[in-house]
Model the fold of this input.
Amino acid sequence: MLKLPKSLRKELSKPFGVLHKSVNLIEIPLRKQLEEKKLIIAKGDVTSKNLVEIGIQPQICIVDNITKRKPIQHNLNHTNNIIYVNNPAGVLTDEFVDACINSIHEATMDNPIIIQVKGEEDLAVLPCVINSPNDAFILYGQPDEGVVLVKVEEAYDKALNYYKQLIKE
Done:
């Protein structure tokens, strides 16, 4: 298990990529990404739901049924391929990291995967960035601001640096 040190909390609360007001504003590059069969990972219930609602089906959705610390029903039903993992707040369990890595290798347009987290999925962007292909996109919500688009090629070094600072327990 890897634990988030207090010294990184403020830094990781900042957008990891480019912040957009809505997924609708980046719909064209997202559709192009899917047409080229390149990986899209959606982290978060609202982001995943919003993408699926506009017809953009990420190969991987990572959800925890919580938004802004309140329960939410995302009603994602675009796949029956659901992996259930436990991951408490402020950590990355081995089980969760393994689920992310395995999903990155196995998920396709015809075989999308939902990772259903019991606990919290907030740190998922780190293992996803450092284990995804360079041309992958990762999207997640920035509460009350919009959606962050992370291009793996641009974020890899930063993600790896943060990942190495997590405390092994």
Q: What stands out?
A: Residues 2-7+20-168 form one domain. The chain has a mean pLDDT of 92.
